[in-house]
Amino acid sequence: MRGVPLHRFDLDAIGAGLVVAEAGDEVRRALAHGAAVVTAPPGTGKTTYVPPLVANLLAQGGSGSGHRVGRTILTQPRRVAARASATRLAELDRSTIGEHVGFTVRGERRAGRDARIEVVTPGVLLRRLIADPELDGVGAVILDEVHERSLDGDLLLGLVSEVRALRDDLLVVAMSATLDADRVAELLGAAAGDGPAPIVRVPSALHPLRVEYAPFDGARLDERGITRDYLAHLADVAADAQAGSGVDALVFVPGAREVDEVVNRLRARVSRSGAAVEVLPLHGRLSPREQDRAVRGRLRDADPHRIVVSTALAESALTVPGVRLVVDSGLSREVRRDQARDMTGLVTVSASHASAEQRAGRAARQGPGAVVRAYSEAEFARMPAELTPEIATADLSDTALLLAAWGAPAARGLALLTPPPAAAMDRAVAVLAALELVDANGSLTELGARVARLPIGVREARALLAGTAELGDARRTAEVIAAIP
């Protein structure tokens, strides 16, 4: 097996003050079985502490000079979270990013050949699995924030569980603040023919949290999405709450457009009042530098307090330092399929109870905090308990191609937390067949294998290959495809 040089992380220094460090021995015992589930509420430090602990476990198998061990792969659901997690671990290790800890996300890689821990997004690891199902050179996979139930995250859990059947030396950890731990434990153990994986439950580390409600008299949503009147209400609630508390605040809204509008309203109000407050956006369309600015926290106590307006980026996988106040819109973006247009898109819906609690907990990670829910208690009571798994609502065309490349056409024989809807999978396979990417048995064609290697959607990839053959110019074809709305 390919591997990386030995490097032992200083767990005493990394785990100082982290509640999860007290469960370190329990995690080690659990991983003697090869797999474990770690449930740890926000603020316990699981993303900071567990990866170096696992990397050190792998290092225990090597002793001689020059011995190489498997790399530890940690998944984070979003690019900004992957970068932030890797940067934080490197800082605690007192090494440069990419030396012992690195990251790889779409369009950016900062992971040296000898990095012991590599933080990646689920899509990156999925493509590596298709190219190398045994994950040569990898000693451990840690799947973080499993509770988010993203399509890629659910697929990874199923595929990595199967890899355990091929490699009994591979350590696998599934982590989350809130998840159905028993079901995940069964899934991790089943493919390898074991019983359920051991579950390590870390107690909460939250400080006291005050909950307030600021109801809105009008409609939060209409046929076009979130109303501008509600965004104005949200901005006013955030400005008043921050001014009254004099702390750093985090405001949750559904999407990038809403982030920008609330930021503009808050900046205008701050400008009129003359308050020393910095207002910053945080969403996936920002540049890495802009995202890093929002998540790094105040550098000095004398710096102005901050209001960070964010999408779900900051809900679970990412910590914004210094936050003691959360203002929650109670709304989320979820994937929904438009049957009439045969297309999938994001729609604004009520957040779940689990999401609302996750958001609220961001205010009490570093000390006593408060959450202001900019809606009524009755609206909170009507929220669904959990997020809808993306696999239940998404267009499955890309997923069907990946599954065919894995050797599980239409997910046959693959254990998943939520099976894909049969009708949606049938439609997806029909799309692949029409594009000549799978045969009558659902297996990949030669063209399908080429498309599966491209990091874009199946329709775009098929058009790219066809256009390149027609025009003889891949760059020009890609520009045309990118211009199609």
Structure description:
39% of the residues lie in helices and 19% in strands. The protein is an alpha/beta fold. The chain has three domains: 4-201, Rossmann fold, CATH 3.40.50.300; 209-387, P-loop containing nucleotide triphosphate hydrolases (Rossmann fold, 3-Layer(aba) Sandwich), CATH 3.40.50.300; 396-483, Four Helix Bundle (Hemerythrin (Met), subunit A). Helix 6 packs parallel to helix 7 (181-190), helix 8 (228-245) packs across helix 9 and helix 16 (458-471) crosses helix 17 (474-483). The model has no long low-confidence stretch (mean pLDDT 88).
Put the structure in a nutshell.
This protein has 17 helices and 20 strands. The chain is α/β, with parallel strands linked by helices and 485 residues long. The chain has an eight-stranded mixed β-sheet, with helices on both faces.
CATH architecture assignment name of the largest domain: 3-Layer(aba) Sandwich
Helix percent reads 25-40%
Output the CATH homologous superfamily of the largest domain. P-loop containing nucleotide triphosphate hydrolases
Question: Spans with pLDDT under 50 lasting ≥5 residues?
Answer: none
CATH topology assignment of the largest domain: Rossmann fold
Return the structural class. alpha/beta
Q: How far do the termini sit from each other?
A: 45 Å
Give the amount of beta strand, in percent: 15-25%
Overall pLDDT confidence? 88
Tell me the radius of gyration: 23 Å
Report the total helices.
17
How many beta strands in the DSSP annotation?
A: 20
- Major sheet: 8 strands, mixed
Oligomer category: single chain
CATH class category name of the largest domain? Alpha Beta
> How are the strands ordered across the major sheet?
6-5-7-4-8-9-2-10
Shape: globular
Number of domains: 3
